[in-house]
């Protein structure tokens, strides 16, 4: 009965809250732009780089060759970050990880959060005493990391780095009992804030942070191209959001054979090896950059970059996703990947591509070349660590 009620009333609820959430995001970005203009703030990567390296140099950290660094990480390891980031860090040196898992926000702030910060700091100090750590890499927010813990890590003489992969709707997030649940309350004390949202750079600057914009990436060791037969016409990967469900339903009604996999779909969560295999088997993989998880429309109103934008081209399959302005910084749209704006646009694009093998394969090859050359986590981390000033330009022997 409860499930029936959810299926009945959830769409109605989403119809109301979806537009309100999008309005909130638009107003937030308008306020950020106005504040940045008033303060005459500009995202100047070269200037920020000098500031970052000055901070790191003051900690007496010497740059090292690739393979010699010691980096301590903390985030939820069994999320995609542990799957993607940690293997890529291996080529830079030793990696030490401290995991964090939050089950209930209310209970987390009544003991576990304090314990996590205490044990995290103890683990960092212990490893630092054995041999100096070069950097602390954190993905999360104030919900996990206390500002005093971050200050203690800085005092140890360790370079500090945060990653923001969901900054489109704001860097601060909600305030829970005086704590910003996202990174807003921490960025002033972080040496470098890596964000995958260009517009968020201005909010980081307003908050006193030092942002570096770089898109997301894919791990070329995991997302590999194989010679398996292409027996899936169209594949949709990712969470079953209302907008994606409507998109898939309309495509199927129009006669397009779409296989959809991921949490919320009948398949449920798919193991990474199976996901990579299915991507290789697909003639076309469609993505959705919709940033609204309860959007009932099949047209994405507010979009953002997704990890899929870089993972799928690494498998050599043709990738078609919603248009996002930042994708233009990453690919030659039309030649390396394709974009769509609504269901009809996507349907026509898919029909044309499925009927033209040579065109489809040509675009897929170009996308694969671009992704392998520019959009791997190895290349992202290389730039980030050099930007921090802890990775030298000298190549390993």
Task: Give the secondary structure arrangement, pairings included.
Elements: H1 2-38, H2 45-57, E1 69-75, H3 80-89, E2 93-99, H4 105-108, H5 112-130, E3 135-139, H6 147-155, E4 159-164, E5 175-176, E6 179-180, E7 192-195, H7 200-206, E8 211-213, E9 232-237, H8 242-253, E10 258-261, H9 272-281, E11 282-286, H10 308-314, E12 318-322, E13 338-340, H11 343-354, H12 357-374, H13 377-388
Parallel strand pairs: 1-2, 1-3, 3-4, 4-7, 7-8, 9-10, 9-11, 11-12, 12-13
Antiparallel strand pairs: 5-6
Helix pairs in contact: 1-7, 10-12
What would your notes on this structure say?
The chain is α/β, with parallel strands linked by helices and 397 residues long. It has 2 domains: 26-216 and 377-388, Glycogen Phosphorylase B (Rossmann fold), CATH 3.40.50; 232-374, Rossmann fold (3-Layer(aba) Sandwich). The protein has 13 helices and 13 strands. It has helices at residues 2-38, 45-57, 80-89, 105-108, 112-130, 147-155, 200-206, 242-253, 272-281, 308-314, 343-354, 357-374, 377-388, and strands spanning 69-75, 93-99, 135-139, 159-164, 175-176, 179-180, 192-195, 211-213, 232-237, 258-261, 282-286, 318-322, 338-340. The strands form 3 sheets. Strands 2-1-3-4-7-8 form a 6-stranded parallel sheet, with helices on both faces. Helix 10 links the parallel strand 11 and strand 12. The longest helix is centred in the N-terminal third of the chain and has 37 residues, at 2-38. It is globular.
Oligomer: single chain
Instruction: Please bin the fraction of helical residues.
Output: 40-55%
SS strand fraction: 5-15%
Structural class: alpha/beta
Overall shape: globular
Q: Please give the order of strands in the largest beta sheet.
A: 2-1-3-4-7-8
Number of domains: 2
Number of helices: 13
The CATH topology of the largest domain: Rossmann fold
| N-to-C order of helices and strands | HHEHEHHEHEEEEHEEHEHEHEEHHH
